[in-house]
Amino acid sequence: MKALIPYKKKNAKSRLSPALTQEEREDFVELMLRDVVGSLHEAGIDEVDILTTLDNGVPNDLQANVVLDENDLNEAINEYLSHEQKSIFIIMADLPLVRAIHIKEIIARPEDVVIVPGKGGGTNIIFIKDPSNFHVKYYGSSFLNHCNIAKERKCSVYIYDSFLLSTDIDEPHDLVEIMLHGHGNSREYVMERFDMETGKARARITVSDDA
Amino acid sequence: MKALIPYKKKNAKSRLSPALTQEEREDFVELMLRDVVGSLHEAGIDEVDILTTLDNGVPNDLQANVVLDENDLNEAINEYLSHEQKSIFIIMADLPLVRAIHIKEIIARPEDVVIVPGKGGGTNIIFIKDPSNFHVKYYGSSFLNHCNIAKERKCSVYIYDSFLLSTDIDEPHDLVEIMLHGHGNSREYVMERFDMETGKARARITVSDDA
């Protein structure tokens, strides 16, 4: 089994710009990546490949391999899958709420494919037992795409239902979820910078006076 | 065991007004209520109390009791809990993605209290084994409130992690989740009225031309 993490640092997460500068966002995505890799290792997945491009430097001290591919996300992943025999656990780098227990539960499922839906029809994690019999199609409603591809390929599918794994960190209000349910480097980073402001509606973040 | 569903129909869900008129929203909250009650019955919870006020007519054909209380949500629920000996499963009426399997898993937990977090620090479901030893505090970050109350009362707590149960239907983009992951009356209603528009970002809804 191997894990694959698509990763982009350069000008990442532009939708977080109301809350964080470009430099802060680039620091922050690296911290989220560290938390994801940490949970994978804790779950016993030692072989971790980070799929990225030349100008998105992955830190040297991460126990992970760097796979460079300048193509777009789908092409790059499908190229990778076509050369793989082992089961592949594809997880996005912006899921710092993931814990080892989630990963262990997902990889223990007997189905051919496990899909973890994100908000709005995304695919936050996909676990593929036989990568030679699957291809990915991110963007658009990738959750439906992946359900359909599994059906065409006659793969059994399990939909793993998790709030924490549905929470990819894209927008300022997602940072609240890190404060409430997070751990590790990303939580420390957010707690240092923001306060939680609560009213009748959903909790929001506010920038600390001393930030 | 009993279930308690706080319910408000009159001018409900104002944040859905970009997508639905007041009359439509009032119809829609009733359909969501029907789906929630249906899943409770399917999970074997026969005794369902709907907590509401005089002007929020609960349909007569629902197999549920109506409990009228004109006080605010917290006061009304705490008054209810103070007179109850049975375990209470408090579920919000805007959770049409709930299925019987979720409910069965929650009520099978051995802990004193099970909390199902919503987005932004909400409490979407709380299951309380001994209602005489608990009180609720909705609004604000009720998830943290309820964790703290459990700690004060020395209750063991389980946090039930579910994307589907974290998805209370408050804003137009939440309707997409009903299209993707829903069932029952509420899904039928949404599918008749909206199309899904997908691009690189999260899926959005658009009003059907023939709506």
TrEMBL record, chains A, B:
Pathway: Cofactor biosynthesis; coenzyme F420 biosynthesis
Reactions listed under catalytic activity: (2S)-2-phospholactate + GTP + H(+) = (2S)-lactyl-2-diphospho-5'-guanosine + diphosphate
Entry's Gene Ontology molecular function annotations: GTP binding; phospholactate guanylyltransferase activity
Known EC number: 2.7.7.68
Transmembrane segment boundaries: none
SUPFAM superfamilies (UniProt xref): Nucleotide-diphospho-sugar transferases (SSF53448)
Key word GTP-binding present: yes
Keyword GTP-binding: yes
A Pfam family assignment: CofC
Top-level taxon: Archaea
GO-annotated biological processes: F420-0 metabolic process
InterPro entries (alphabetical): CofC, Nucleotide-diphossugar_trans
Keywords: GTP-binding, Nucleotide-binding, Nucleotidyltransferase, Transferase
Family: Belongs to the CofC family.
Assembly notes: Homodimer.
Biological function: Guanylyltransferase that catalyzes the activation of (2S)-2-phospholactate (2-PL) as (2S)-lactyl-2-diphospho-5'-guanosine, via the condensation of 2-PL with GTP. It is involved in the biosynthesis of coenzyme F420, a hydride carrier cofactor.
Protein name, UniProt field: 2-phospho-L-lactate guanylyltransferase
Organism expressing this protein natively: Methanolobus mangrovi
